[in-house]
Amino acid sequence: MLTDWGLAMGLGVPHFAARRFSTCPATLQKIRYYTHRTLEQWGLASCAGDATAIANELVANALHHSLSSRPCHGFGWLGLMHAAGAVTCVVKDPTIDAPVLLPTDHRSPTGRGLIIVASLSDSWGYSTHGDTGKTVWARLPAIKQHSTPCINDFRRSQFTRSPEGPT
What we know:
The chain is α+β, with helices and mostly antiparallel strands. It starts with a helix and ends with a strand. The strands form two sheets. The protein has a five-stranded antiparallel β-sheet, with helices on both faces. A two-stranded antiparallel ribbon has the order 6-7. The longest helix is centred in the middle third of the chain and has 23 residues, at 45-67. The protein has helices at 2-9, 27-41, 45-67, 113-120, 151-159; strands at 16-22, 75-83, 86-93, 123-128, 134-141, 161-162, 165-166.
């Protein structure tokens, strides 16, 4: 199953990572750590925060809407891929139920996951795999981390005087 899914997602590309997740209480913490660390290792620390929030919401939706109701299929997959200037976060779970972007209800403590995904990503969607489950994905621009001077270096260079006068 991972092989087919991984190949469709780009298993052969240099920046592909996948992690199986379960319904254990520490799942979301582990997913956030895994996503952030993976993007940092790929040199994409500048978009790691958004990708981590997206992965967290997609996995939380899978846990809440799919895995909690199917104890015999108590795991899903998170896939991360960096290709063609974008990072794609993909979650595979065992139900075919379509994700639904709900209108915001400020009184409800839930129901904002896909709103967060839609606002942080350039695009998102899903596909079903017969009766074996679905894949929900979100894509965001990949911004490579370049070495940048720290703010104090910038301020110092702005206010340094040279013998010829202010710079």
